[in-house]
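Sharing a chain and its predicted structure for anyone who wants a worked example. Both blocks are below, sequence first, tokens second.
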Amino acid sequence: MKKVVFRLFVAGFAFLALSCEKDVEPTNTLALSELEKNNYIKAFIDNQEVNLTGKLPLADILFNAYIQSENTLRMQRLDTANPNITFDLVVENVNYPALNLPTTVTYTADSLNRPSLAMFYYDSLGNVFSNNILDPNSFSLTISSAEQDLVIGSFEGTLYNQSQDSIAVSNGLYRIKIKKYD
């Protein structure tokens, strides 16, 4: 009887020991956390600094991605205190792996043959501002570096809402880790 109880005790202890997960620290924790912390889209909007570092928890891999089948690069960040404030940068018809850097993109109606930019800024009041398709040179985005999954660059220009109210965007910078899809 003592042997049975002892075996049950040992089996129970072994079960508990094996079922507990050991916290394994990755060897590059600092590098990963620094990379994540340093993902941002920031700019001065009408001379007010906006620095967006938040991301949509479950949709981040879709909103910060290069989709090769569509030749589309998309980058997005939102305000961690007010998720209504968002930058959304979309470059269509771009062959990301073969970019000649630096490259500057504006809106073009010929998006089948040339890269074209769609830039959106959502403010705290729910207003949506975007680049003006009637004036393609009013807003530009430059991709300075595209090493592996990290895209770095700048942007500037004027964005408009539906009422044609405008905001001036200056000293825009971004650094976004993206996911690549076929």
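Comments welcome. The radius of gyration is 23 Å.
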